[in-house]
Amino acid sequence: MTTTLTKAPQRRRAPRRRRISGLHAYTLVLIAWLILPIAIMILFGFNDTHSKQNFRWEGFTLKWYVHLFDKGDLTTAVVNSLTIALLSTAITTVIGTFAGLALGRYRFRGKGSTNLVLFMAISCPEIVMGASLLSMFVTFNLPRGYLTILVAHVMFSIAFVAVTVRARVVGLDPAVEEAAQDLGAGPWARFRLVTLPMIMPGVVAGALLAFVLSIDDFVITNFTSGATVTFPLWIYGSTRTGTPPQVNVMGTLIFAVGVLIAVVSARRSVRAAR
Amino acid sequence: MTGVRGRLAPYLMILPSGLWLAAFFLVPMVLMVSLSLQTGNLIDGFRQTLHWQNYTDGLSTYGDKFVRSLWYGLVATVACIVIAYPAAYWIAFRGGRSKSTYLFLLLLPYFVSFILRTVSWKLVLTDNGPILGPLRDHGILPDGFHVLDTGVAVVSGLTYNFLPFMVLPIYVALERIDPRVVEAAYDLYASRLQAFLRVILPLSLPGVFAGVIMTFVPVSSDYVNAEVLGGPQNTMIGNIIQTEYFNNSAYPTASALSFALMAILLVGIFAYARTLGTQDVLEAARR
């Protein structure tokens, strides 16, 4: 009985699969189209170009990898981007995690409006956030720079971390924490030994999101930066005069590290699932 | 956790984030609205005069830029749906064991930063670049062929940059469909087209709906693609806001334009959600 039930649809699906392969081809073409500019970016990091405009292939070289740090202001920009991303991730992860915990676990006055503000912060156009921050700095005559960028990055990442952690907290069984309380754990021990390990996947996901949002941000940074330059700002500034190959190399290295982290963590979670 | 401390706990936990968002999100928003009604200049300072003309002047001067931004946003969003749907469909239903590999490959370009992706896309579209150059040299493209600095270039860049915001929600919605529901449609003698139109498509609409909301707002308020790919002829409202702030120091006008942009997008999204909201989408699925 069971065998006939399971076999019947399989027999019918076989001819269908052959016809659908047009969509398979389409998916592969789409992937190729999406990867094409990235492939060009990586390739032109190896281009032995002599003009300022790096778009004619002139032969293979590794010199841009050797002279990666020759452009001092580019190096400063990349260092700024990395340190801002690390600091903003650290701050956001701590305060955003507590916000996510409160929203996922407790009922309290003002919860609805807090959720509304988080939703607004996620859906607000970036340019409006940047423009409003600039309006504030102009109104109060505050100098813009490294600190204002950091403040802005924490601001636009909080909602993402809080929402990610909240999603994890909502799915948890409160009985586990109650058990810890019954066994005499104080609030701090309960948080550190029970709650935190349980919400850790949400916290890590939120932190990664915060890091990526920060290091990639152009629009809000542009409005809050003053004279401080980050990697995206530097690239944007270079588009008019010609982007040097070192940018391709930096982009390639960041890309490689990002892909490596993604692949390793995916492998690890697959192994953990087994 | 008992007593006052227990009752205070959620407030203490929410406090740092709440203060941060209040100080650097809500207060700036209020100040921007206030600034948008002021008059003055950078040297003499700005004073509050409830100058509503900032809005009427801004909208009449740059009305065409608003229209263009919304138009580009619409075209790029529709292009994203059309491009993303078939791939998301194939991966969700036929991807088999390599589902996540395909999804990963589709998202691979987004490991490169937004701005660098746009610059690389410009390289693809450049007349003498590594793609169009050889194509023209071999006579495949006509001599007058030109994409860069056109509206098409801007929309193509926007589509390229924001595609994952469409692919992911559609994929999630399709992936969630119970294959037994689709098989039931076939068992009831639905053709492949009927099964798609009456079962799969309606069930995936919430994903499309979410994708549109996630794509349309950032696309229509973007100015990087217009700046890098569009040249001076195809500026969007974001470019105007940026120029008014940085080059002209016309803070009140720029604030008025920013607030108007947000209001237009919010009203648009709200109207869209009301007419095509999830409730109706679910009803459409039931029909």
Automatic annotation (TrEMBL), chain A:
PROSITE patterns: ABC_TM1. Pfam families: BPD_transp_1. It is found in: Cell membrane. Its main location: membrane. Residues 78-265 form the ABC transmembrane type-1 domain. One of its GO terms (biological process) is transmembrane transport. InterPro entries: Bact_Polyamine_Transport, MetI-like, MetI-like_sf. The chain crosses the membrane at residues 21-46, 82-104, 116-140, 146-165, 193-215, 247-266. It comes from the Bacteria. Belongs to the binding-protein-dependent transport system permease family. CysTW subfamily. This is ABC transporter permease.
Automatic annotation (TrEMBL), chain B:
It is found in: Cell membrane. InterPro entries: MetI-like, MetI-like_sf. The keyword Transport applies. GO terms for cellular component: plasma membrane. Pfam families: BPD_transp_1. CDD domains: TM_PBP2. Residues 66-272 form the ABC transmembrane type-1 domain. PROSITE patterns: ABC_TM1 (PS50928). Keywords: Cell membrane, Membrane, Transmembrane, Transmembrane helix, Transport. It is a multi-pass membrane protein. Coiled coil: none annotated. Gene3D superfamilies: MetI-like (1.10.3720.10). Its main location: membrane. It comes from the Bacteria. The chain crosses the membrane at residues 12-37, 70-91, 103-124, 151-174, 195-217, 254-273. One of its GO terms (biological process) is transmembrane transport. Belongs to the binding-protein-dependent transport system permease family. CysTW subfamily. This is ABC transporter permease. It comes from Actinomadura darangshiensis.
